Amino acid sequence: MQFIDLGAQYAGIQDEVEEAVIRVLRSGQYILGPEVTKLEERLAEYAGVNHCVACASGTDALVMALMAKGVGRGDAVFTTPFTFVATAEAIVTVGATPVFVDVDPTTYNMDPSALRRAIEALDQASSGNHPLPRVDDGLSVGDLKPRGIIAVDLFGLAADYGAINAIAAERDLFVIEDAAQSFGATVGNRRAGGLAEIGCTSFFPAKPLGCYGDGGALFTDDAELDALFRSIRVHGQGSDKYENVRIGITGRLDAIQAAILNVKMGVFDEELVQRQRVAETYDRLIGEAGIDLVTPFIPEGNRSAWAQYSVLARDGAERQKIQSGLAEAGIPTMIYYPKALHLQTAFEGLGYSHGDFPVSEALGERIFSLPMHPYLGDEKIADIVAALARAAR
Ligand SMILES: *Cc1c(COP(=O)(O)O)cnc(C)c1O
Q1: How far is the CA of 386 from the centre of ligand 1 (A)?
Q2: The predicted structure's pLDDT at residue 137
Q3: Strands 186-187 and 190-191: what pairing?
Q4: Cα-to-chain-centroid distance, residue 56
Q5: Which residue has its alpha carbon closest to ligand 1 atom 6?
Q6: Residue 8 scores a pLDDT above 90
Q7: Residues near ligand 1 with C-beta < 6 Å?
Q8: Of 144, 165, 250, 315, which cross-links 76 as Cys (Cβ 3.0–4.6 Å)?
Q9: Mean pLDDT of 329-335
Q10: How many separate domains does the chain show?
Q11: pLDDT for 259-315, tens place per residue?
């Protein structure tokens, strides 16, 4: 059994994908071009925003968003420590300082009340009610200027943008939605990618909408930001290719990846339906079997894109026992994420310590993810849950 079965998806779209790739190979247009433009138009419409700019990865999308906002040294950007490393890495890449905010224990997404505490703590340059980072290079934490927020839609569930956007508006902060795991998710009649001023997503193969290499995209309603993203994507170019008006990056998307994504968009909605079926079947069977696990909580009005189906074991020892039992039955599981970012060596310069973000730390000890993909049949799910029941006994 596979954790994510990309082969099953490929079998269903093989002819179309191969034709699309050959079409690009024969076209001689390998970077940007008509396939990328077509993709951008489709994705903007899908996300319900005015502009989409395709780029080379989800990480580049985050970096480009921060560059477009002019974020750099001395700026503070609030984000959570319970996410894939790229979210906080992008902040450090542009020279700014991540200020971590713990997650909600039920959704695993940014806790808006903790965000308020973090903003107040920074205002007062005091860690009394919220742990703050250490800042080097001649700056002190009181010099940090709060600039914006990167909220993450973890495992495919949108963060609480109603609350987060309201807090941001009070303080004139920007909000970036890290929708790398949530493209396709909905909140009411709005779609992930379009829930904040800027949305960023990833087309890494294992994401809900994946290509066959690296890729990403930015979303916005703001025409000025759209123009900035397009300039930054190509080394800060101006109106002419060899006029450089700002510092940018090599952030372009390949035409081959765009062509593949244009084919995959044709099956994406059906795949979301199938992911929802898998999640509901897990919920039901785990409940019926009375297994002592916390299954995902999806707040009213939300629909997850189900990048992952993650559950909580009672404690670390129980998780270890269940994962070993499943591995013996040939069922792969993964841990997203075992170590919160504030405890990672890469961020040790921020001076955080154990206990600073207790919810993220406890999740790291208890959480694990079960196989999740649109082609996981009900019988296989029943086998997985039966093995879970045996392992959890
Ligand atoms: C995957 C991911 C990214 C980075 O995307 P890449 O395309 O791999 O660069 C950023 N944030 C989150 C939450 C992710 O899951």
Answers
A1: 32
A2: 77
A3: antiparallel
A4: 15
A5: 58
A6: yes
A7: 57-59, 83-84, 86-87, 152, 178, 180-181, 202, 204, 214, 216
A8: 144
A9: 98
A10: 2
A11: 999 999 999 999 999 999 999 999 999 999 999 999 999 999 999 999 999 999 999
Same domain, 194 and 334: no
Q: Is 342 exposed, middle or buried (0-12, 13-18, 19+ CB in 10 A)?
A: buried
The verdict on 139 and 235 lying in the same domain is yes
pLDDT of residue 322: 98
State the residue range of the domain holding 182.
Answer: 6-101+108-263
Specify the ligand 1 atom closest to the Cα of 202.
7
Burial of 140 from C-beta contacts in 10 A (0-12 / 13-18 / 19+): exposed
* Ligand 1 atom nearest to CA at 204: 7
Query: 71 with 148: CB under 8 angstroms?
Result: yes
**What are the structure tokens assigned to 362, written together?**
């406890």
Q: Are 217 and 61 in contact (CB under 8 A)?
A: yes
pLDDT at 109: 98
Instruction: For residues 12 and 132, state if they share a domain.
Output: yes
User: Quick one: pLDDT at residue 329?
Assistant: 97
Atom number, ligand 1, closest to the C-alpha of residue 61: 9
CA of 57 to the centre of ligand 1 (A): 8
CB atoms within 10 A of CB 33: 18
CA of 65 to the centre of ligand 1 (A): 14
Tokens 């940007």 map to which residue?
32
Mean pLDDT rounded to a whole number for the chain: 97
My answer on whether 212 and 276 are in the same domain is no
pLDDT, one tens digit per residue, over 92-109 is 999 999 999 999 999 999
